[in-house]
Write a structure and sequence with these properties.
The protein is of the alpha/beta class. A six-stranded mixed beta sheet has the order 2-1-3-5-6-4, with helices on both faces. Strands 9-8-7-10-11-12 form a six-stranded parallel beta sheet, sandwiched between helices. Helix 6 links the parallel strand 8 and strand 9. Helix 4 packs across helix 9. It is globular, with a radius of gyration of 19 Å.
Length: 280
């Protein structure tokens, strides 16, 4: 274990959520600060829903430089912030906050984290037909990010059709030229199938029928625990190219780090720590 040079000048970063004890970010981000020689530490702060309004004044007093935001505060924190990035404004959701001279600025790195993980895997999204499963927070962030990547079309499937309809309306407002279909009645061919539902977490359940999986050239699951979800196991069995959610987790953190430090993140170091932490 490397030594953290904590002294009177150590900058403090962190994550707020409830719960936060399961988060990989404290290890990953603290290791990243050390790797680039930044005198900084990253801590978990367990903040229940009804105490969120106390957090920003307390953080200002403690001179906290920036923090991540996770469940259940990603949307409710918005009214407490002074400025939002265009992505955060569009999504109505924040996972990264930076202390600026003008106040607290909120960002969302969910979408960019996902896109960067695909780029890293050599996937070019331009001109691709995509089937996206889910219509929750992750589906919203990822579909908006996909819409920025010049994809050919987007099909949405969700258990609750109304929620998929609502997401489709939002997408149409922001990206009127993107062809979008909700809960298609026939099975079509897709370049990429992306699971943004929570089905498969902990290794339980597959979010879609085998015939639909077979219709895809590539299957991406944002689930990273287990690294091979039942959906990815099936894709592997069918000989389909696949990708899990570890890359998204890594690149979300990379993007947060770059927002806070204004420097390139030590990606390899962060990836190593993430893998070590997951295998503990
Ligand atoms: P996240 O922030 O991770 O996206 P979320 O907003 O709670 O989490 O969204 C969870 C997604 O998983 C939703 O699309 C949800 O479908 P519903 O809109 O019908 O609730 C989907 N999901 C969760 N459990 C499911 C299940 N057992 N079967 C099918 N879909 C499920």
């Amino acid at each position: 274990m490397e030594t953290i040079p904590i002294d009177g000048k150590t900058k403090i970063y962190g994550i707020i959520g409830h719960p936060v004890s399961h988060s990989f970010s404290p290890k990953m981000q603290t290791a990243a600060f050390q790797a680039i020689g930044e005198n900084a530490i990253y801590l978990p702060f367990d903040i229940p829903e009804n105490r969120l309004s106390d957090v920003l004044p307390a953080f200002r007093l403690l001179n906290i430089q920036g923090f991540n935001v996770t469940v259940p505060h990603k949307e409710t924190i918005l009214p407490f912030l002074d400025e939002l990035s265009p992505e955060a404004k569009k999504l109505g959701s924040v996972n990264t906050v930076l202390a600026t001279p003008g106040g607290w600025k909120g960002f969302s790195t969910d979408g960019t984290g996902f896109i960067r993980s695909l780029q890293h895997a050599g996937v070019d999204l331009s001109g691709k037909k995509v089937l996206l499963l889910g219509a929750g927070g992750s589906a919203k962030a990822i579909s908006m990010a996909l819409a920025e990547e010049n994809i050919l079309g987007l099909h949405l499937r969700n258990r609750t059709a109304q929620k998929a309809e609502r997401l489709s309306v939002l997408l149409q407002q922001a990206y009127p030229l993107l062809p979008t279909v909700v809960n298609p009645s026939t099975i079509e061919e897709y370049d990429i199938l992306i699971n943004c539902t929570s089905v498969g977490m902990g290794g339980k359940g597959c979010p879609v029928e085998k015939e639909v999986i077979r219709s895809a050239k590539m299957v991406v699951d944002i689930i990273y625990n287990p690294p091979l979800s039942p959906l990815l196991e099936l894709a592997i069995h069918m000989g389909i190219q696949f990708l899990n959610g570890l890359g998204m987790l890594l690149y979300q953190g990379v993007a947060s780090f770059e927002i806070w430090t204004g420097r390139s993140a030590p990606i390899e170091k962060m990836e190593t720590v993430l893998h070590q932490t997951l295998s503990i």
